[in-house]
Request: fold
Amino acid sequence: MARNDRTVSRRSDGSWANKKDGATKAGSVHERQSDAISAAREMLINSGGGELKVKGVDGKIRSKDTIPQGNDPNPPRDSEH
Reply:
């Protein structure tokens, strides 16, 4: 299964990018870091979960968070019990 991780980091123009790890282009660009984090979190929930890394202004990882997948309207039924 492919990893579905995202990183929020500051761009050279001062905006904040929400980028899937390994991608060349940002998934979304925002004025505020909090907006980019919210967008990345929503994208991870909608795409099955993954790890969210947030980098500070200095470019160092500030925090990591594992996002679970969203609610499945048709979860698999337990056939053993």
